[in-house]
C-alpha cells in the first residue's frame, strides 16, 4: 500500500520508496499539507505546524475568535482564493453572480488501484500495475462547485503525479480564470530555484537562483513549452549538488504555455504553484461539466540532482512515452536537412542515402521541402501533397530504392502551420488563428492553424493518415516552427475566446493521439525549431525530440547536459553534422561529434559523400560502436560526472547498466590548457566487488576502485579532444 488513511487522525499519507507526502483534514475540513520529504514511516507530521496570530491574516467565519487560525499561513494542498490566503492562488474562478471566491473544504476521498487517466490529456500510466490513485474531493462552502485532487503514486519510482478536476455541480455556468495542476507548500528550510532557460539554438541552460521574498516565475506565453523556459523546475537546498542535498522536481506534462510560480512569503514558507499559463485564459464551465488540468510529476531526492534526474528518466521512459519504440533498438538515421535544405530531388537524396547505407545507416529521413510549392519557407505549408517536380512519380520510387539499399524511410511534417502562399490558405483563410480586423503576426512567414477546430484537425488527420497508409513510412518528424500568437478562433463565440490557448494544445494532442494510435509502428520524433517543445506532454506521443537546431558538438554538450536534468538522454535527437559547423563555424573531430551524438538518439545530418575516406571509415566504426552500446544508452542509468562549475573546462558523463554489467564513460575537454590538472571522475553504478575490463585493452580495475578512486584520464590535447571508454564486468 502506498496510500494510507487513518480515520482516527484523518491523515492521508502517500509513501514512495524514499519519500513521504502527507496531508490532514482538520476539524473544519481544511485540507492541510503537513509534509513532503524523506521517507518517515508512521510519522504524524501535524506537530510541525504551530499556529500564532500573525496580524493581518484573516480568520474564517467559524474561527473568527481564533486569531491564530488563518489560511494565510497554513500549508495547503490546493488553495482557493479570496478566502483569507493572500499568497499565490492555485485557482481563480468567477461565479454566475460575478463573485470571485472559493473556500475549499474536504468532502471525501477515494483510494484505488492503478493510475488515474485524464481525458484528452497526456498523463503518466502504469505499466506493471503497481501505481495507486488517491482522489480527494473538496467542495466550495458557498457554491455547488467541487474540486477533485488526483494523486497517482509510483512508489518504486519516487514520483507522485498530481492533477486537478473542477466540477460544476450547479445550475449556472462559471468561468475559470486559473487552475493550477498542483500547489505544494514547503514551510521550512532554505531553498533555491534551478530552472532551465534558453533560446533557439541554446535550449535548457541551467540557472540557479536564490529565492527572495517575492514570486519567481518560470513561464512561457508562446503556446508551446518553448526554447526560452522549460516547464521543468527544481527547488533545491543551497548545498544541493549532483550527489548530495535535497531537491524537489516539478514537471508539468503539458506542451502549451505554462507557468510555475515560486513564492517565498514573509514567514519564509515557499509555495510552488504550477500548471498551464492563465494568460488570456477564461474557460466557461457549464453545469454538469468538468475541467481537467494537465498533470504535474513531483519527485523528491535527498541525494542530489543526479538521483532526481534518474527518477524522472525512469518515469518518462517507462510511464510517459507510450510508444512501442521504448522497448526497441533505434535505427541509425540520416537526415538531409543540413545537407540540402529544400533544394533536393529523388536522385540527390538517393546519392546521400547510398553512401549512408554503405556505411551502415539504416533509416533515411527526408526533411522539409518535399510537398506543395515548398522551395523556400515562404510557401507550401499546409499542402501535404508530394512535389513531383522534385520527386517524380511521388514517394514510391524513392522508398523503393531505399528499401533496396536496406533502408527504412522517414518524413518531415509541420501539421500545425500554414503559409498564406498555399492552396490550403487560399481555400480556408478562416482556418488560421487571427483576431478580426487586425493583420496577423508572422513567424518564418507562416501562420498558425486553428487547432481548436475539429474540421482543421480532420483535414490534417486526412492528409497524414493517407500519407502513412499509402506509403511505407516508419518515421515521422513532427515540427512546429513558430510561437503561437493572434489567439482567436473563428469557430468560437466571443465569450469562449479565452479557451483558445488551452484548446489549441488539446487539439494538437488530439491529432497526435489519433495518428500515433492508428500507426503504432511509426516512430514519431517531436521538434519545434529544434527543442522548442521539449516536454513530458510531447514525450507521451513522441519518444524522441530533436533536441536543438544547434548541431555543434560543443554547444550540444551544454544543451544535452541541461536537458538531462529532467529528460532521459535517449529522448534527445542528436546528430553528427558537417564541419565547420553550420551554426557556429567551429570544427571538431568526427570522433568528438560521435561521442556527443551518442548521448542521444544517434544519427547523421550531412552529405557523407563529402567526407574524406579516413572520416568515412571513422563513421563506420562509430556506427558499430553505437550498435554495441545502444541497449545501454536506451535502458541504462545516466550519471552526470561533473558539477555545473566544471562545465567550462570539460564535460563527463556515464551510462551504467542497471545490473552493473557494463558502463560507458564519456569525456569531452572543452578548453584544453597547457600543463593542466588531470581530470579524475568517479564512476557510478558498478558492482563494487567485481572487476571490470576496459574494452579493447587488457586493463582491469575493481568496481570499488573505479567508484571510490575514480578514473584518471590521460592528458589530452588539441581542439576539443574526447574519450569514450567502455568498462565490461568480468564474469
Ligand atoms: C526546424 C527543424 C529543423 C528542420 C527545419 C525545416 O528548424 O528544427 O531540423 O527540420 O525546421 O524547415
Describe the structure.
It is a single chain. The protein is an alpha+beta fold. The chain has three domains: 3-319, Distorted Sandwich (Beta-galactosidase, Chain A, domain 5), CATH 2.70.98; 333-635, Aldolase class I (TIM Barrel, Alpha-Beta Barrel), CATH 3.20.20; 640-729, Immunoglobulin-like (Sandwich), CATH 2.60.40. The chain contains twelve helices and 39 strands. Strands 6, 7, 8, 9, 12, 13, 15, 16, 20 and 21 form a ten-stranded antiparallel β-sheet that branches. Strands 22-23-24-27-28-29-30-31 form an eight-stranded parallel barrel, surrounded by four helices. Strands 32-33-34-39-36-37 form a six-stranded antiparallel β-sheet. Helix 6 runs parallel beside helix 7 and helix 9 runs parallel beside helix 10. The protein is globular. The protein starts with a strand and ends with a strand. 52% of the residues are buried. Bound molecules: alpha-D-galactopyranose. Alpha-D-galactopyranose is lined by residues 337, 367-368, 412, 479, 481, 527, 529-530, 546, 549.
How is the secondary structure organized here?
Layout: E1 3-6, E2 11-15, E3 19-25, E4 31-38, E5 91-94, E6 104-113, E7 132-140, E8 145-154, E9 159-168, E10 174-179, E11 182-186, E12 192-199, E13 202-210, E14 215-220, E15 229-236, E16 247-252, E17 258-264, E18 270-276, E19 283-285, E20 290-292, E21 296-301, H1 304-319, E22 333-335, H2 337-340, H3 346-359, E23 363-366, H4 395-404, E24 408-413, E25 417-418, H5 423-427, E26 447-448, H6 454-470, E27 475-478, H7 500-518, E28 523-526, H8 536-541, E29 544-546, H9 553-564, E30 572-577, H10 590-597, E31 601-605, H11 613-635, E32 637-640, E33 650-656, E34 662-669, E35 680-681, E36 691-694, E37 700-702, H12 703-708, E38 711-712, E39 722-729
Parallel strand pairs: 22-23, 22-31, 23-24, 24-27, 27-28, 28-29, 29-30, 30-31
Antiparallel strand pairs: 1-2, 2-3, 3-4, 5-10, 6-7, 7-8, 8-9, 9-20, 9-21, 10-19, 11-18, 12-13, 12-15, 14-17, 15-16, 16-21, 17-18, 25-26, 32-33, 33-34, 34-39, 35-38, 36-37, 36-39
Amino acid at each position: 500500500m502506498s496510500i494510507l488513511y487513518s480515520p482516527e487522525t484523518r491523515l492521508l499519507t502517500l509513501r514512495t520508496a524514499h519519500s513521504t507526502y502527507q496531508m490532514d483534514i482538520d476539524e473544519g475540513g481544511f485540507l492541510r499539507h503537513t509534509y513532503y520529504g524523506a521517507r518517515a514511516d508512521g510519522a504524524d507530521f501535524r506537530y510541525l505546524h504551530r499556529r500564532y496570530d500573525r496580524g493581518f491574516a484573516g480568520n474564517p467565519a467559524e474561527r473568527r475568535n481564533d486569531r491564530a487560525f488563518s489560511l494565510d499561513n497554513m500549508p495547503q494542498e490546493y488553495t482557493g482564493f479570496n478566502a483569507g490566503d493572500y499568497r499565490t492562488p492555485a485557482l481563480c474562478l468567477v461565479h454566475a453572480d460575478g463573485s470571485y471566491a472559493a473556500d475549499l473544504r474536504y468532502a471525501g476521498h477515494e483510494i484505488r488501484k492503478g493510475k488515474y487517466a485524464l481525458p484528452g490529456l497526456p498523463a503518466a500510466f502504469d505499466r506493471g500495475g503497481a501505481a495507486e490513485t488517491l482522489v480527494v474531493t473538496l467542495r466550495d462552502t458557498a457554491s455547488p462547485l467541487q474540486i477533485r485532487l488526483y494523486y497517482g503514486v509510483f512508489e518504486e519510482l519516487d514520483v507522485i503525479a498530481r492533477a486537478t478536476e473542477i466540477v460544476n455541480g450547479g445550475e449556472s455556468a462559471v468561468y475559470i480564470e486559473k487552475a493550477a495542476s498542483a500547489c505544494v507548500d514547503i514551510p521550512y528550510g532554505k531553498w533555491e530555484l534551478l530552472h532551465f532557460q534558453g533560446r533557439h539554438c541554446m535550449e535548457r541552460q541551467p540557472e540557479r537562483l536564490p529565492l527572495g521574498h517575492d514570486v519567481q516565475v518560470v513561464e512561457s506565453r508562446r503556446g508551446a513549452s518553448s526554447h526560452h523556459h522549460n516547464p521543468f523546475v527544481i527547488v533545491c537546498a543551497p548545498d544541493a549538488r549532483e550527489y548530495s542535498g535535497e531537491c524537489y522536481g516539478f514537471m508539468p506534462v503539458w506542451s502549451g504555455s505554462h507557468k510555475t510560480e515560486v513564492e517565498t512569503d514573509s514567514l519564509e514558507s515557499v509555495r510552488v504553484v504550477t500548471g498551464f499559463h492563465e494568460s488570456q485564459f477564461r474557460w466557461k464551465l457549464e453545469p454538469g461539466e468538468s475541467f481537467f488540468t494537465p498533470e504535474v510529476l513531483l519527485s523528491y531526492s535527498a541525494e542530489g540532482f543526479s538521483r532526481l534526474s534518474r527518477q524522472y528518466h525512469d518515469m518518462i521512459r517507462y510511464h510517459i512515452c507510450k510508444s512501442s519504440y521504448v522497448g526497441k533498438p533505434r535505427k541509425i538515421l540520416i537526415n538531409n536537412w543540413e545537407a540540402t535544405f529544400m533544394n533536393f530531388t529523388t536522385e540527390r537524396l538517393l546519392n546521400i542515402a547510398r553512401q549512408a547505407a554503405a556505411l551502415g545507416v539504416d533509416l533515411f529521413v527526408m526533411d522539409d521541402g518535399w510537398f506543395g510549392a515548398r522551395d523556400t519557407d515562404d510557401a507550401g505549408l499546409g499542402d501535404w501533397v508530394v512535389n513531383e517536380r522534385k520527386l517524380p512519380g511521388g514517394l514510391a520510387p524513392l522508398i523503393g530504392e531505399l528499401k533496396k539499399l536496406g533502408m527504412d524511410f522517414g518524413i518531415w511534417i509541420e501539421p500545425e502551420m500554414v503559409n498564406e502562399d498555399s492552396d490550403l490558405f487560399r481555400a480556408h483563410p478562416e482556418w488560421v488563428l487571427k483576431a478580426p480586423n487586425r493583420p496577423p503576426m508572422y513567424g518564418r512567414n507562416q501562420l498558425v492553424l486553428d487547432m481548436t477546430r475539429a474540421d482543421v484537425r480532420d483535414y490534417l488527420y486526412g492528409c497524414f493518415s493517407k500519407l502513412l497508409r499509402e506509403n511505407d513510412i516508419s518515421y515521422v518528424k513532427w515540427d512546429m516552427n513558430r510561437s503561437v500568437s493572434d489567439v482567436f478562433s473563428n469557430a468560437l463565440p466571443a465569450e469562449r475566446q479565452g479557451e483558445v490557448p488551452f484548446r489549441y494544445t488539446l487539439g494538437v494532442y488530439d491529432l497526435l493521439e489519433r495518428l500515433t494510435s492508428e500507426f503504432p509502428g511509426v516512430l514519431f520524433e517531436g521538434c519545434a525549431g529544434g527543442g522548442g517543445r521539449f516536454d513530458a506532454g510531447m514525450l507521451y506521443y513522441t519518444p524522441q525530440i530533436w533536441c536543438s537546431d544547434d548541431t555543434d558538438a560543443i554547444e550540444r554538450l551544454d544543451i544535452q547536459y541541461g536537458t538531462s536534468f529532467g529528460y532521459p538522454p535517449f529522448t534527445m535527437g542528436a546528430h553528427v553534422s558537417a564541419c565547420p559547423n553550420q551554426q557556429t563555424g567551429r570544427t571538431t573531430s568526427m570522433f568528438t561529434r560521435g561521442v556527443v551524438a551518442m548521448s542521444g538518439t544517434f544519427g547523421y545530418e550531412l552529405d557523407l559523400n563529402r567526407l574524406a575516406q579516413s572520416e568515412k571509415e571513422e563513421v563506420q566504426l562509430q556506427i558499430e560502436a553505437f550498435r554495441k552500446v545502444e541497449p545501454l544508452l536506451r535502458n541504462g542509468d545516466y550519471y552526470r560526472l561533473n558539477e555545473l562549475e566544471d562545465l567550462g573546462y570539460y564535460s563527463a558523463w556515464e551510462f551504467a547498466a542497471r545490473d552493473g554489467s557494463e558502463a560507458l564513460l564519456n569525456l569531452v575537454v572543452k578548453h584544453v590548457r597547457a600543463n593542466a590538472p588531470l581530470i579524475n571522475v568517479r564512476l557510478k553504478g558498478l558492482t563494487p566487488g567485481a572487476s571490470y575490463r576496459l574494452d579493447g585493452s587488457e586493463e582491469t580495475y575493481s568496481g570499488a576502485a573505479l567508484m571510490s578512486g575514480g578514473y584518471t584520464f590521460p592528458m589530452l590535447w588539441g581542439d576539443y579532444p574526447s574519450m569514450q571508454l567502455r568498462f565490461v564486468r568480468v564474469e
